[in-house]
From TrEMBL:
Protein name in the entry: Class I SAM-dependent methyltransferase
Entry keyword Methyltransferase: yes
Domain of life: Bacteria
Membrane spanning residue stretches: none
Gene Ontology MF, one: methyltransferase activity
Length: 220
């Protein structure tokens, strides 16, 4: 009932991705700077990886190029088609799936790294704990979860209460989170790194915007 109370997400996202020439920061074909740092410094050494809300595939492609076995999911058919084209252009194998992540049967304890760049802040409040449980069930014990989302106080992302989400029937383009709120939601995880993303002027080999949190968690 609450799912249907908010907008139907898939058509909105298909329209969002339909024009690939739009000046959208994360339309660039470069991985998140924090993700590149995790891999280059050896902070993580992922093998089996799942990306939630992969969009046009820039992070999934980077991880596949590092030798990871990649599964990637997104709600938008337009985004998945674009991601498949990008992956084919650089000849990397990725299992892309167009689906609502809550409708997918992810194999239990299958992944050693799950990554989310901009998906969580579009998750409705009543679905947050479902999201957390999905990650906990799909990760191996001791596995890592990487998160990038809107930071509260930066002017990007909606700074509204959960009640207001349902009163307005909208996530207002994505919810902004405080550090304390994220630590509470992901209390079953150990925090490995918690910081603001570094802003990267494009074009560049990495993507970064300082209005985003970037967090690396480890499942306890």
């Amino acid at each position: 009932m609450l799912d249907s109370f908010l907008r139907e997400a898939a058509p909105w996202w298909d329209a969002f991705y339909a024009d690939r020439t739009r000046d959208i920061p994360f339309f660039v074909d470069a991985p998140d700077e924090n993700l590149r740092n995790y891999c280059e410094t050896g902070m993580i050494r992922p093998s089996r990886v799942l990306e939630l809300g992969c969009g046009p595939g820039r992070n999934a492609i980077y991880l596949a190029q590092q030798g990871c076995h990649m599964d990637a999911v997104d709600l938008s058919r337009e985004a998945i088609d674009w991601a498949i084209e990008r992956a084919h252009a650089v000849a990397v194998p990725i299992n892309f799936q167009c689906a609502n992540l809550f409708d997918v049967n992810f194999e239990s304890q299958h992944y050693d790294f799950i990554y989310d760049s901009g998906c969580f802040h579009h998750i409705a409040p009543h679905r947050r704990m479902d999201f957390v449980e999905l990650i906990k069930n799909a990760l191996q014990p001791g596995g890592y979860f990487g998160l990038t989302c809107f930071a509260h106080g930066e002017g990007y992302g909606a700074e509204i209460s959960d009640w207001e989400v349902y009163r307005q029937k909208s996530l207002k383009g994505g919810l902004a989170y405080t550090e304390n709120k994220l630590r509470q939601i992901f209390a079953d995880f150990e925090v490995v790194e918690f910081r603001r993303m570094n802003r990267i002027v494009q074009p560049a080999v990495s993507f970064g915007e300082s209005f985003l949190w970037t967090v690396l968690f480890r499942l306890k």
